[in-house]
Amino acid sequence: MATQMSSMMSLATIPSLKFPHSKPPFLNFPKLHFVNSNSNPRVSKLGIGSVRAQASSNIGMGFVEQAIKLVQASPPTWQSAIFSNTFIFLVGSPLLVSGLSLSGIAAAFLLGSLTWRAFGPSAYLLVAAYFLLGTAATKVKMAEKEAQGVAEKGKGRRGPGSVIGSGAAGCICALLSIFGVGGSAFSRLWELGFVASFCTKLSDTVSSEIGKAYGRTTYLVTTLKVVPRGTEGAVSLEGTFAGILAAMLLAASGSLLGQISTLEAVICVLAAQIANFGESLIGASLQDKEGYGWLNNDIVNQRWYFRTWQNLLRPLVLWVEHLPLYQ
């Protein structure tokens, strides 16, 4: 008993533990305040909406940045060519429908993709200029041409045959460039041939359509006899002059866009006139004649163009490229 009493007395003499604060430290944590989302549903919904809007904005900006990088890809890739061409076709669909049939649009899509892949956006702009100018010339005095029976079928809307015929030479030049045929020594030649092909076709289209609309007197190129408007192989002063101006305009555009040089632009205009004159000769001599029903305008245009380029203009280009002034 005495031992228990002494133990209790010793515990009583131990000094009490005092804390510097009124409360122990583990009781001094800051209070946690919880917000009941149900108490103000409008605020919570606005917060969630702003987060979603921000996320959508970030996704949209990321897509735009990727699209811009894709369009600006240098050198162009198939992916950038198809993406850019698809976007432009969707935006420009009203213009395309006015100038092309549905099958013509499909053929034009192929041409546009090849153009972008081979020579980039500047060449694509050149082809777009060709399409707009050619369509505008075709629509000139359409009702009067229809009354005379010399208008293009389908209110001037071109089909796949016309598109392929117009762009066959350009497509071949594009493919030769894409696959690097001839190496760097021939790369400029393919690009020049590409521009020259569209200068030739635009000059032909404009001279024909303006001649039908405004030509006072048309002459058969082989005999110089006066013939009605729209006769195969016939030419007029008004149409010829308009065709030369069209070729000059497109060649100058190609030079400004950096596709060709000034000297090469002159070559393109020269090629256009030689090819168009040759086409008129073939049209007057063979087209619409018995046994040559397959020989339509599109075939004549491209076959004569290739022959002209092969035999006359390619040596001229190679000669010009070695001139001191050109270098």
UniProtKB/TrEMBL annotation:
Domain of life: Eukaryota
Pfam families associated with the record: DUF92 (PF01940)
GO CC annotation: chloroplast inner membrane
Transmembrane segments: 87-111, 123-142, 163-186
Keywords assigned by UniProt, alphabetized: Membrane, Transmembrane, Transmembrane helix
Principal cellular location given in the protein's record: membrane
Subcellular location: Membrane
Membrane topology recorded in Swiss-Prot or TrEMBL: Multi-pass membrane protein
Keyword rRNA-binding: no
Presence of the UniProt keyword Glycoprotein in the record: no
Family: Belongs to the TMEM19 family.
Official protein name in the record: Protein VTE6, chloroplastic
Lineage: Eukaryota, Viridiplantae, Streptophyta, Embryophyta, Tracheophyta
